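thought: fold this chain, then report.
action: predict
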Amino acid sequence: MWRRLTAIYVLLLALVLIALEVPLAIALAKQDTEQMTVDRLADAVRFATLAEPALRTGEISDLHAELIRYDELYNIGVMVIDLDQQVVITSRADFDALRRRPETRRRMQQAQELSLAGEQVGSQGPIWPWREAPLVVAAPVGSGGEVLGSVITVSPTERLSDRVGASWFQLLAVGMLAISAGIAAASSLARWTLKPVVELDNAVHRITAGHYAARVPPGLGPPELQRLTIAFNEMADTVTDSLERNRAFVAHASHQLRNPLTALRLRVEELAEELTTATAAEEHRLALEETERLGDVLDGLLALARAERGQHRRETVEASGVVAERIAAWRPLAQQRGIRLSADPTMPVRVRAVSTALDQALDALIDNALKFAGRGARVHVSVRPLDDSVAVHVTDNGPGLPDEQRARAAERFWRAPTSQNIDGAGLGLPIVEELLTASGGRLDLLPARPNGLDARIWLPAADPSTHPPGLHTTTPAHTPPPRGMTG
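observation:
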């Protein structure tokens, strides 16, 4: 942007210089031409005064000698003609050589006619640097209204053209120096003007990347932009403070919930002595596992709070094992609701993710599928390794979601119009998306075929080179996985 602003400043300066220097250059050419014309016309008048008695008496030897000396000294050809336009005297024997150019012959003929009519003939226009035609000046010979003849001088204009060209070159040099200085000044002014904008751009990108302490240095640029930077810094302080309060609340709440959860676990463990049947023992074991699961969820909330501050720590997770655990945990509820919950058997596949990110993502997606797929539906979980990532699909053959609803499904507190009476707060998918983003992955919500929803989790592979043979898809290593519709 500063280049465009500099170009505008320089263009304006160039237009001003053109508006000033072009008329000045023309005026200089006219001034030099007029000065030369006045000098030559004065010489022609002097020769006309000398020629009057010579033409009356016929004694032209002295005048002839004067014209020759003048021509030898100044290289200016002089010719005296009578009323019949016959040449009486010339300053050089080859005077006709001066008439070789058609333009010169035309001007000499015009000068002869006007001077014999009693008029003085001077310049017919300014001498330009590229003009090569000589200057023709004529004065009538005679007095008291009687014209006896005419004196015509033909002056070379090379020196005058060179002088005009030199003046124009000086003007051009001054203009170039002015433009050079203008470029430097305009560049400095543009940089100074746009410095706050550049700093604002940098600060916005740093804040977007998670560096919430980024601010714009004060006191840069013009007063209007200084006020803008002050307002931006105040806004950033307010937003950062709000985010920090929210994260502190999440972290504090997660920490405080661990104490009653620990007490609950102790009480559940004490019930083990009262259990006598194998079924009760199994239910007791599952209850203990779920208390441990709740503890992991609280740890995950703490990890999420740290992830939003850019302080998250990823770990290696065995995806197939997590899928098997979550299928076992949700199968009783699926059977109760008349839904078939299954998973493909796969060899171990490891991914990199924030603590409990995959667990919570699968819980949220399986929970949604069991809620909305309907009795008699089928929910299937599969793990598909790629060259540098792993896709975990939670697919159901329920009613699914229209495109516009799938686009909004990951918005916080959003719920489909047809699901308002079903338990939930509309936070499951937003939390999943936050955890996956912190893990370097993402969530895609795609339509299943022929009907239903395909919720696809993308996570980076822990070690792409160790994927089991035969599980790789045909996706090239340099091609990113296709994106679906995410909220």
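thought: worth noting. The CA atoms of residues 236 and 242 lie 10 Å apart.
final: tokens above.
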